[in-house]
Design goal:
By secondary structure, this protein is mainly beta. The protein has one domain. The protein contains no helices and seven strands. A hairpin with a 5-residue loop joins strand 5 (58-67) and strand 6.
Length: 100
């Protein structure tokens, strides 16, 4: 649930981005309908990320960085949900499901 920071200005819409940073070695691929992504983990397991309900924003995969224990940046990926939500707040649902 996204709630407004103040009670003022409840009209119109405001942009948002919800980011899920994935761990090292996790490979992500968008589903054909762009409402989900398959995740392949280094241990060989597969997971599915899925946006639930009537989601009208976009789901994308973007590059990101993770800083390891020695302070070195390591490349990773992130899932990004973004769109516009009413200034009065919005609700978003998603799930992670282990496949197989």
């Amino acid at each position: 649930v996204l709630l407004p920071a103040s009670k003022r200005g409840k009209r119109g819409k405001v942009g948002y981005a919800i980011r899920f940073h994935l761990g090292q070695g996790i490979s992500a691929r968008l589903s054909e309908d762009r409402k989900g992504a398959g995740l392949a983990l280094p241990d060989g397991s597969h997971w599915q990320f899925r946006v639930a309900g009537e989601y009208t924003g976009t789901l994308s995969i973007e590059d990101s960085l993770f800083v390891d224990g020695q302070g070195r940046p390591q490349p990773i990926q992130q899932l990004v949900l973004q769109g516009m939500a009413p200034r009065s707040g919005g609700s978003f649902a998603w799930l992670f499901k282990k496949m197989g």
